[in-house]
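Student:
Attend to each token:
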Amino acid sequence: MNILKLELTHFGKFHLKTITFTSGLNIVYGKNEAGKSTIHAFVRSMLFGIQDTEEGNERYSHYLPWETPHDFCGKMWIKKDDKVYRIERNFLRPQPTVRVFDDETGESLQPAKQHLRQILSVSLRQVILILSVLSS
């Protein structure tokens, strides 16, 4: 799976921010407080949501935009097996939503969470390894 593009509508310090990735290795770098951790949190939240746990509640509060809390959302384009998918999430509680689309046809893939799990098709072990690499 490759991440192609991120659209942070309103997430943390970012407002209407688009980040496009190229094929191969992409490195997100910048000075302190540039938003590297926010981008990591956005990717994680787009793929897995923001859980209703103590850690998730802290992340929710930390990244909820103050100026536009009603627009706490974003989009992400990923490619897997030569197919491009668009993931759209609204993180706003009490009813956060996720939608998954075939980006070529525009077809909404239902149920979204099930399709997202199939697209990601990673084991718990792989998730832990990925998160530990991203966190270091």
